[in-house]
Amino acid sequence: MSLPVAIPLQTDQVEVSGPVADLLVEALGLNVSLANAIGSAVTFVVVAIVVYLLGRVTVVPLVNRVLRSRELDEHARKPLRKLTGIVVGFAAVGVAFAFAGYGNILTAIATVGAAATLAIGFAMQDVLANFVAGIFIFTDKPFRIGDWIEWDGNSGIVEDISFRVTRVRTFDNELLTVPNSNLTDDVIKNPVAKKQLRLQAAFGIGYDDDIERANEIILEEAHAHPDILDDPAPSVRLAELGDSSVVLKSRVWIDDPSRSDFVKTRGEYVTAVKERFDEEDINIPYPNRTLGGSLEVDGVTAETVVD
To answer: pLDDT truncated to tens, each residue of the chain (307 aa)?
Structure first.
């Protein structure tokens, strides 16, 4: 008769993972599993912060110097600096994942992303649309920081361009935060994109005035103004025979304009022409209207004409 043999039970022993967990077990006497969980979390946070700060003080300045060496303007450098910061943050999280023993961050992100893609896609349609529009603004460069733009009845100076919104300061000193998709889906007018801007000014003179002399005065004042270009040359044409005046339209060009340059130059030019017209007795007539009618008082009818 054989005696039963006792077989010892095999138990899996949890090993201490990492110096932080080891310190928690020895100093505080924590359970190994709890110490491992806390140690991994502490390691993840510390490593992520250290790597991120190192990246901010080394990688970001290096990228900025490279962008400056390639003579990229602020419009191009600013989004690239933001993108560099995002990449540094992503790298910090990846390194922290590895040091904390959480495994491959790419696998974790793929798993979570596969489950959340549909929900995020519906929730972030507008955000994604603005992000894509921001990329188009960055690559196509329809305008830059500092440009004066007009769209959908609005106008102002571009102060900042991000991947989601563009901030525009109006000429009334109001700050507009415009979703990028609004700017890429609409017609944008950039008067300063080509470094030269044409100004138009209409001058009305009387039918009895000398048209040729008026043309000469308009051109003389254009050539005399320091901010009006000689090439392209100023020009003036008879544009309209109005009800009370002959309309002469002047076309002049200014260089490297801004909104303030446009308003200032046009105002000075029109003022100079008006003063010359006054000196040489060329009239700038205003509309005349003749009103006719009749008025009956106590049976007496009176015809009235007001000119």
So the answer is: 444 544 444 434 556 566 666 666 666 666 666 766 777 778 788 888 888 888 888 888 888 787 777 766 665 677 777 778 888 887 787 777 777 776 656 565 555 555 556 555 555 567 777 778 888 887 778 888 888 888 888 888 898 888 788 899 888 888 888 888 888 887 888 877 777 888 889 998 888 888 999 999 999 999 999 888 888 899 999 988 888 889 999 999 988 777 767 788 889 999 999 999 998 888 877 766 666 566 566 655 555 555 5
* 169 beta partners: 157, 175
Residue 255 lies in a domain: yes
Q: Domain total for the chain?
A: 3
- Is 293 a member of any domain? no
- Residue span of the structural domain in which 178 resides: 142-185
User: Pick from 200, 203, 189: which is nearest to 228 by CA?
Assistant: 200
* CA–CA separation, 178 and 185 (whole Å): 12
Predicted model pTM: 0.49
